[in-house]
Amino acid sequence: MKVLTFLNEKGGVGKTTLATTIGAGLAIMGYRVLLVDADPQGHMTISFDFKKHHSLYDLLVRDAEFNDPGIVQPIPPQSYALPNAKLPDSSRLYMVRGNRETRLISQALEGEPFIIQRRMAELEEEDIVDFVIFDTSPTPSTFHALIYLATDHIIYPTEVTYLSFDGLVQSIKHTTDYSKKRSQEGFGDIKLTGIIPTKFRSKTLEHREKLKSLHKGFGDLVWNPLPMSVVWEEAMSRKMSIFSYAYDHPAAADAWKIVRTAKEKILNV
Ligand SMILES: Nc1ncnc2c1ncn2[C@@H]1O[C@H](COP(=O)(O)OP(=O)(O)OP(=O)(O)O)[C@@H](O)[C@H]1O
Ligand SMILES: [Mg+2]
Fold this sequence. Notes:
Order of helices and strands: EHEHHEHEHHEHEHEHHHH
Strand content: 5-15%
CATH class: Alpha Beta
CATH topology: Rossmann fold
CATH architecture: 3-Layer(aba) Sandwich
Distance between the termini: 15 Å
Bound molecules: adenosine-5'-triphosphate, magnesium ion
Shape: globular
Helix content: 40-55%
Largest sheet: 7 strands, mixed
Low-confidence stretches: none
Structural class: alpha/beta
Number of domains: 1
CATH superfamily: P-loop containing nucleotide triphosphate hydrolases
Radius of gyration: 17 Å
């Protein structure tokens, strides 16, 4: 089981969009995926039309079991799968939902920095999923630290703008600090798996120049950019993945490339 976290301390850069898209794509490929909405905004939760209850707070603070009713919520295939295509029998997409209580978690669990790591180890033992994908809030918090300590791979979505780059640099610094801590406890480094430039406009000189500077600073860590398209907003507001909403749109082809890259980089296949 691999734990993957989406992070950028700048808001609105595409964390939720990419976390759900990569989760949906891996599930379509036949993997068992658990999405975890770790943002008090609960945007991942509402992007699949779920109510914001039975949340991560229940799992971590109220000690709910993974198989308690409502905790691990199956996402219906019509919300994420390709229309009219049969999913592999092994495919699963689940969600642990998020809500405002999420912001109280770190306070309630002071002195238990490895609580999420421990719950992830339990999940791995039960062999329920292949990937766990955390969507995080843009506001740095002590709660983020609990997530970092449970994370194997981090992906940083970023817009190609000055302020997003600042969020990116801050996020990488925090991850690196916690990677050392995680290593010292014997859980291995957090791998910086990729930086995904989002909402890219290739005809805009400023975007092309910012992309160049991103490559200069981070080299191979930078993946191909995800172009700007209103279809992403449309899919989200219809509570569907890009694959179920617009499978024949170029944005879905862009999304597939990102899902394949994620799979290759995380599984080394
Ligand atoms: N490639 C894209 N082109 C156009 N719009 C996009 C693209 N990717 C994401 N969006 C839109 O941008 C908005 C912000 O995206 P998203 O919610 O994924 O960002 P976020 O980083 O999770 O935000 P927050 O920091 O508030 O959690 C959404 O309305 C989404 O539909
Ligand atoms: Mg978000």
